[in-house]
Amino acid sequence: MTATDIRLKPRRKSARPSWDEEPSWFGKLTKALFLICYAAAIVLPIWAVVATSFASEEALARAGGNLLLIPTDLSVQAYQEIFDGGALTRSLILTIGLTAGGTALSMVLTIGAAYGLSRPGSLLHRPLLMLVLFTFLFAPGLYPSFLVVQKLGLFDNYMSLVLPMALNAFNLIVLRSFFMNSVPGELLDAARMDGAGEFRTLFKIVLPMSKAILAVIALFYAVGYWNIYFSAVLYIPGLDTQPIQVVLQRMLMSTQGLPGSAADVSQYQTQAPDSALKMAVVVCTIVPIVIMYPFIQKHFTKAVITGAIKG
Amino acid sequence: MAALQTSAPPAPSRRQDRVRIKNKRTVAQRLRHDWPLLLLTLPALAQLAVFFYWPSAWNIIAFMDYSPHRPFWENPFVGFAWFERLFANPYFLPALLNTLKFAFANLLFLFPLSILLALVMHSVVSTKIRSLFQSVVYLPYFFSWVLVVTVFVQVLGSDGLVSNWLLGFGGDRLTFMSDPDSFLFLAWLQWAWKDAGWGMIIFLAALASINPSLYEAAAVDGASRWRRMWHITLPGIRPVIVLLLILHIGGILNVGFEQYQLQRNAVGFQTTEVLDTFVYYQSVIGTQGPSFGTAAGLFKGVIGLILVLVANNVAHRLGEQGIYQKS
């Protein structure tokens, strides 16, 4: 105990500037408690969800509820049911497809326009930029958007989940201001001197230098598609295979004993305990986010600041 | 790709030429030079034209007696009749008031929490603890509302984890997730869980940009920890707080749809009805028809437009950039 204290103390001192006095133990304790409680309020529910998804029927019955913190006699029955090729599997495949395809399309649109609008003084630069910026000021409204999707024949068509949200003007402006401020102009000039056209400059110089911000923007788009719920309620109410969030919502409604959902849910439920299956679906919707997240997290601040201050 | 490269203009020092004689060149010359930029911008503009500008133009039906069953030009103009019906609708005013209530509650109760989190985080010296804590609290921002509500039902619902504990100790079940009176508190808990951590990110950046020599000078002069926070830290992040407040007021009617729709059945529609759910339930799946829903949406859009413009004007007056440049 004392040995580690002696070894650790100088190191901790070095991180704190010399003029800063050591806080009182009371201050430290309050701060530590606050942080621990806050983190626990986020982590514990997620942990309980994961634990419950692996619970067997007996374990859940013994716990007498629909969520437990310590999993006993583990069971993967819920996951077997999700991946057995039934309605839940189809829903997951659909959601993965929408996310992959939608993100690819969004990145093409966003990168193209961000680069195309990054050169003040080019032909039509200002009016085109105004067309993009105006989207920040006004929202066309729910019903007209719904009407346009109908007129295009996209109602009850999976394209209606991707195309209307394919471009986010905020992401576009963030990326544009990164291209303008963080890619050195000398480099672009040099490329042009060497005879590189705009496309070659974009692919060989600008994009490789923007990997971090591209990753963050791709994450934002991907999360948007992965979390599609309302568009599906609005645009594809008649299709059998729904995005995973809609499936989860139907299961949730059935737990709350609310009307209008019992028939919808029966197609998802078979052998596994209700709670375990539901929590396994929750885990499936969290896992992709948690996997991508650590790679991109360190770049968040830069993207948010670029967007909030310079956008 | 190769074809594109050869067709691009290879002339050296073209960029400097353009800057110098920009205004003397004809449109055709500029087009020959800038066509790749226009081509790259085109897909995004097409998307905006179809899914932003076209629906925006459809707002015209708020002033018509629109029916999808007859040709567009045969729909008669009716002036503001739909808006009169909108304001006479008994559910419209409550929906508007609820929207404002949730928006201001979010502003008043979530902002301070984010700032508090950022201040505490900033005072933690260990970088390991900081990055660990940040990883944890940013995560729920990326969860869908369906997921957040599901987790809340499982933990705090009447059959949830906490209820079971309370029953075990001889207490009562929690019922506040289906109680209209406590819905504002519930909504705040959900915002706090989902978004407060993410909200701290921008304050942390602002805190990091405060010149550390200010703290040192104050400490040498004998200012305590609290005095340093009051006289250096808070003034240092004040511009960011003001800017964010203003920008949020601009978008205040956009309280979202999913959080309220998802809890509508459990809590009751009177409490959870906001403008977006009003349009959906009255017009999209209800019987009020296209023109009525469009009028409600246009009302929200125009108020939103005015608020954004006013908020930006205030931001410019306070010396901030706002969301568009005032050039």
UniProtKB/TrEMBL annotation, chain A:
The keyword Translocase does not apply. Residues 92-296 form the ABC transmembrane type-1 domain. One of its GO terms (biological process) is transmembrane transport. Pfam families: BPD_transp_1. It is found in: Cell membrane. Its main location: membrane. InterPro entries: MetI-like, MetI-like_sf. The keyword Cell membrane applies. It is a multi-pass membrane protein. SUPFAM superfamilies: MetI-like (SSF161098). Keywords: Cell membrane, Membrane, Transmembrane, Transmembrane helix, Transport. One of its GO terms (cellular component) is plasma membrane. This is ABC transporter permease subunit. Residues 1-20 are annotated as: Disordered. Belongs to the binding-protein-dependent transport system permease family. The chain crosses the membrane at residues 32-55, 92-116, 128-146, 158-179, 212-236, 276-296.
From TrEMBL, chain B:
It comes from Glycomyces albidus. CDD domains: TM_PBP2 (cd06261). One of its GO terms (cellular component) is plasma membrane. Its main location: membrane. It is found in: Cell membrane. Signal peptide: none annotated. Keywords: Cell membrane, Membrane, Transmembrane, Transmembrane helix, Transport. This is ABC transporter permease subunit.
